[in-house]
Amino acid sequence: MGSACGSSAELWSKCPGCHDIVYRKEITRRLNVCPRCNFHFRLTAQERLIAVVDPGSFREMDAELSSSDFLGFGGDPPYQERLEEARARTGRREAVITGEARIRGFRVALAVFDFAFMGGSMGTVVGEKLVRLIELAAEARLPLVVFSSSGGARMQEGMFSLVQMAKIAAALARLRERGVVFISVLTDPTTGGVAASLAMLGDVNLAEPGALIGFAGPRVIEQTINQRLPEGFQRAEFLYEHGMVDAVVSRRELRGVLARLLRLFGAPVEA
What we know:
- It contains nine helices and ten strands.
- It is an alpha/beta fold.
- Strands 3, 4, 5, 6, 7, 8, 9 and 10 form an eight-stranded mixed β-sheet that branches. A two-stranded antiparallel sheet has the order 1-2.
């Protein structure tokens, strides 16, 4: 289930939702949403910025930070090689981008995960970038908006990646003490340590339709408890029905919903 935006030579795309063959330009025009069944394709970080923030308003911070194989994890392929491949393929240095932006004129501190970079996994650099952004939001009293898309903590960094969960949760607690709102947007997939430490801690938790959300994946849970899970388990709609998220919002409506929430919470407007 990759992004709908592939090679320009590919005119058609098979939708994973309805399995119909759909004209690729029509999917792109609809913010990478299938016009037949409303299936939401995954977005890269750049595509997410285009879909949500005011044009030209995003100012990235800490873009120079990047991970290294400081544990000598190795692996096949080695961790350092995987990092270099992800950077070359995505054009980014890490699995999250952070900075300031505007959403319909409202100023926000913004973080966007990119699942294309090692499954959006959270290591020490991702944790550090998020904490710095949260501290900026607290200092400048800017609403924090985070788009999560992650498989969880990065195993190649061992315990150091797991420490980021507590580090981020503590930073969010300090943000709440300052009375600054945190709006969390959970996209497909939001799992593991990112779901546990960040994505479910919003003052408002929104989810895109069909997004997989949870700690362990459904197959792991089924194998562990030796029981069949309910239909739609861990999908956004299931979580909404059980009170785990506040709303399921279609991507084409998300920008407007965010703007209304920011107005409600008294977000600053660009002068």
